[in-house]
Design a protein that fits this description.
957 residues, alpha+beta, Isoleucyl-tRNA Synthetase, Domain 1, Isoleucyl-tRNA Synthetase, domain 2, five-stranded mixed beta sheet, four-stranded parallel beta sheet, 32% helix, 17% strand
Length: 957
């Protein structure tokens, strides 16, 4: 909103030429930023080299502090973006001042769709726009005075960075997960087991009898990175595959609103599911918000149950169920429309007696299945799993056999079953599952009660309005030839039927996970190329390390080829596939020159952020991923950190189950293979809140420029028209973005830093109010005024000892600020600094040097530029950055006396000054002996004395 700044730069310049103004702040800040860069003030020494030659430095504890990777947007930063960066900077500065060797730096996650979309629209290479955005962002962040070790910065688009991203991919590709050892092992060890006969080859043939293609297929079932035909969101109108997040709830693309279909494409996947148990177990040792841990647990979705085989036409359909105790109630089965067995179990004609409602009005099962598959392909996974009132599906024409009672049950396909979950097939128990109940009612299927209701509905399901779901009830109607569950509780029944399934060879107790393998391919240009080539038989071969990095080639057109939006049978054409000279190559991979074809998909934008913490440690190493000694120093396990990892990682909660889960997976693979000592990438995680801003909309609902809105009598107006106001996100599209530059120009970077940290607790969202920024500017002006004469520019401090009141105020502030900075409570730390500064202002007269210096050191992590300037003015020649943070004297932290309120009949009758450590017995004696209390009692008998030492005595008469 429009306003004028009451603390404008030029105010009272004639009478106070040395006042701290925006212009003075700008000059100070630029000068000290240049000094820090020139001196390498924030360079963190590594254990090799610098630390080896400096025993004192080597003895310091280390602290590795990280922000989540920023993506360099062409729009630049608004004031909401730096919140976390300022917070980690304050914390890092405090850690340096408390004797730590601190690593704090920032790189850029620069591959991704926004730059590619811009390239498609303009023809400009995405590297050009990305590097320009990085340059702009670096300039904006530098102005904030962030203490980053700039030697360690990089971008994921740097070839010498993504060389190692490709290298890690190859380590994952050349690994398999040994379930017995519970770790990844080199694929060569698996091949050796097949060759020696130690491990049987699937299918029973000997390893030497297999062709190269057959061997590749066998290993593909084990590799941690593998290619397979995977269901994807295919958008012909955009010519590309979309992530689930890019598809609207009604099954259309967010960009362009084109229809999106489910299609099977050859894609790269990461076998993250192999690590599901370890990902769950190791969560317990991480210092993360419980909400994030819960999201990961739910996403991984571990559930115990049983695998059950339902015989059908000489084969079987396998389901996973968490409720094997309800097997007797299974009255039909449902397969996902994409299930590979659907075609096999779709006969030429409908069986005799098929219900009309099962056929969908089609003449044959094949017609019905084909039509339904097309219908399901047009829906997103979210839409398919929505609790829709009407359930849809179609009969396949086949019947399976329920193994516990021999009953023939029809097999349907329905879109509410997804191929990506479980086995892509379910046994339907409609009496005890809400979705199955709705489906059974719609298709006139039997509903058999096998869990006795605990309400008054009874076991006759014909009158039921919905399913009865319970884990605490008796099993009924569940007796067969080989097993009886009647009368048992759920837990006992599950155990008994599982034992029977295993004994009968038709199932087994097992664990299932909601987590799916990670789809790792993108049909785009602006991403890391896969270091994979295919021979003439289609077998994938890894490029040797000597051929890395495999750099992106130039292409003439960044646009994907688009198709008829409604033609689901098309296939994507990637931009890389058009550069035939790059795609078709002759290489010598160790067995002579041969022709190969390169992989033309690229890695997803998550790839580079899966390991970037390691590159910060050893950013210029071109011989290995990271020096083991350096990695162990910064990230290795230690006391309270059994899995190692970054000491503090700050970022948004929106990355809970994508980036954080993927990075944990990569870290564990590298740990298993012996490349790192840390099994977890991030030991402590902190999620900062969001800076919000008011969005103003006109009568059409369009956002109007917030800076031009005027407030009159509680209403808001833009160009004379009343507009609505609602708190929301800050952004360019909402016309409410405030740039850091505008605040720095008006007040200075230190003021911006203080305001963002003072707005509220770091982990909660808070509204931006430009009018309130001036409060922190005035704090800095008062701080300056307490040390510098505004008329002469001379330092006014004196060497005299401070009074006891000031000493108490100082040491209470030191004690409180220390605790607050350690706990990331920056808002309350600023409040304590303000209180001390105000005390000095009110006391009057010159400030003692010892107090002034301590105050400057308290301010240094929060407002480093003015702290450096005042430190230098106080006569010091070295930087404030590495000074020792003040330590409180306990004698001055405890109050010498506190005020105790004495009440009689609920009314205050006396106030006593008592020692803070006074006992309840002594306080009662003192209160009853006070002359005001004696007078107020006037001899009345005392019924009870309630003492809350040292602050309250309540006398009941």
């Amino acid at each position: 909103m429009s306003e004028t700044n009451p603390a404008a730069a030029g105010a009272s310049v004639d009478t106070a030429p040395h006042r701290y103004t925006a212009a003075v702040a700008a000059e100070i800040e630029a000068r000290w930023q240049d000094f820090w860069d020139a001196e390498g003030t924030y360079a963190a020494p590594n254990p090799k080299g610098d630390l080896a030659g400096d025993p004192e430095l080597a003895a310091r504890p280390k602290k590795f502090i990280m922000d989540m990777f920023p993506y360099p947007s062409g729009a630049g930063l608004h004031v909401g973006h730096p919140l976390g960066y300022i917070a980690t900077d304050v914390f890092a500065r405090y850690q340096r001042m408390t004797g730590h060797n601190v690593l704090h730096t920032l790189g850029f996650d620069a591959f991704g769709l926004p730059a590619e979309q811009h390239a498609v629209a303009t023809g400009e290479h995405p590297r050009v726009t990305t590097e320009a955005a990085i340059s702009n962002m670096k300039s904006q962040l530098r102005r904030l005075g962030l203490g980053h070790d700039k030697r360690r910065s990089f971008a994921t688009i740097d070839p010498d960075y993504y060389k190692w991203t490709q290298w890690i991919f190859l380590q994952i590709f050349n690994s398999w997960y040994d379930d017995e050892a519970r770790k990844a092992r080199p694929i060569a060890e698996l091949v050796a087991q097949f060759e020696s006969g130690e491990r049987a080859v699937p299918g029973g043939r000997s390893w030497n009898a297999l062709s190269a293609v057959e061997r590749a297929d066998v290993l593909g079932e084990y590799r941690l990175a593998y290619a397979s035909d995977a269901p994807v969101n295919w958008c012909p109108g955009l010519g590309t595959v979309l992530a689930n997040e890019e598809v609207t709830a009604d099954g259309r693309s967010e960009r362009g609103n084109f229809p999106v279909f489910k299609a099977k494409l050859r894609q790269w996947n990461m076998r993250i599911t192999a690590y599901a148990d370890r990902l769950l177990e190791d969560l317990e040792e991480l210092d993360w918000p419980e909400a994030i841990k819960l999201q990961q647990r739910n996403w991984i979705g571990r559930s115990e149950g049983a695998r059950v085989d339902f015989p059908i036409d000489g084969e079987h359909i396998t389901v996973f169920t968490t409720r094997p105790d309800t097997l007797f109630g299974a009255s039909y089965m449902v397969l996902a429309p994409e299930h590979p067995l659907v075609d096999k179990f779709t006969p030429a004609a409908w069986p005799e007696g098929t219900h009309d409602v099962w056929t969908g009005g089609h003449a044959t099962p094949a017609e019905a299945v084909s039509a339904y598959r097309a219908q399901a392909a047009s829906k997103s996974d979210v839409e398919r799993q929505a609790e829709a009132k009407d359930k849809t599906g179609v009969f396949t024409g086949s019947y399976a056999t329920n193994p516990v009672n021999g009953e023939k049950i029809p097999v349907f396909i329905a879109d509410y079953v997804l191929m990506g979950y479980g086995t892509g097939a379910i046994m339907a128990v409609p009496a005890h599952d809400v979705r199955d109940f709705a489906f059974a009612r719609a298709f006139e299927l039997p509903i058999i009660c096998v869990v006795e209701p605990t309400d008054d509905r009874g076991t006759d399901t014909s009158a039921w309005d919905d399913a009865f779901v319970s884990y605490d009830a008796k099993i009924v109607n569940s007796t067969g030839e080989g097993v009886s569950l009647d009368g048992l509780g759920v837990v006992e029944a599950k155990a008994r039927v599982t034992e029977w399934l295993e004994r009968s060879g038709i199932g087994e107790g097992t664990v299932n996970f909601r987590l799916r393998d990670w789809l790792f391919s993108r049909q785009r240009y602006w991403g890391e190329p896969f270091p994979i080539v295919y021979d003439e038989d289609g077998v994938a071969h890894a490029l040797p390390e000597s051929m890395l990095p495999l750099e992106l080639p130039e292409v003439e057109d960044y646009s994907p080829r688009t198709f008829d939006p409604d033609d689901a049978d098309t296939q994507p054409e990637t931009p890389l596939s058009r550069n035939e000279e790059w795609v078709d190559v002759t290489l010598d991979l160790g067995d002579g020159p041969k022709k190969y074809r390169r992989e033309t998909n690229t890695m997803p934008n998550w790839a580079g952020s899966c390991w970037y913490e390691l590159r910060y440690l050893d950013p210029h190493n071109d011989r290995q991923l990271v020096d083991p000694e350096i990695e162990r120093y910064w990230m290795g396990p230690g006391e309270g950190r059994p899995h190692g990892g970054v000491d503090l990682y700050v970022g948004g909660a929106e990355h809970a189950v994508l980036h954080l889960l993927y990075a944990r997976f990569w870290s564990k693979v590298l740990y298993d293979l012996g490349y790192v000592s840390s099994a977890e990438p991030f030991h402590k995680l902190f999620n900062q809140g969001m800076i919000q801003a008011f969005v103003y909309r006109d009568s059409r609902g369009f956002a109007v420029p917030a800076a031009e809105v005027e407030e009159r009598d509680g209403a808001f107006y833009y160009q004379g028209e009343q507009v609505s106001r609602l708190l929301g996100k800050m952004g360019k599209s909402l016309k409410n973005a405030v740039t850091p530059e505008s605040i720095c120009e008006e007040y200075g970077a230190d003021t911006l830093r203080l305001y963002e940290m003072a707005m509220g607790p770091l982990d909660v969202s808070r509204p931006w109010d430009t009018r309130a920024v001036v409060g922190q500017f005035r704090l800095l002006q008062r701080l300056w005024r307490n040390i510098v004469d505004e008329a002469t520019g001379e330092v006014t401090v004196v060497d005299a000892e401070p009074g006891e009141d000031t000493l108490r105020a100082l040491h209470k502030a030191i004690d409180g600020v220390r605790q607050d900075l350690e706990g990331l409570r920056f808002n309350t730390a600023i409040a304590k600094v303000t209180e001390l500064n105000n005390h000095l202002t009110k006391t009057g007269g010159p400030v003692s040097r010892s107090v002034a210096e301590a105050l400057v050191l308290l301010v240094a992590p929060l407002a480093p530029h003015i702290a450096e300037e005042l430190w230098r003015k106080l006569g010091h020649s070295d930087s404030v950055v590495h000074q020792d943070f003040p330590v409180a004297d306990p004698a001055y932290v405890v109050d010498e006396a506190v005020t105790c309120v004495v009440q009689i009949k609920g009314k205050v009758k006396a106030r006593l000054e008592v020692p803070p450590a006074i006992s309840e017995e002594e306080l009662e004696k003192v209160a009853l002996a006070d002359e005001k209390v004696v007078a107020a009692l006037a001899g009345a008998p005392i019924r009870k004395v309630i003492v809350r030492a040292p602050k309250l005595v309540n006398i009941v008469v």
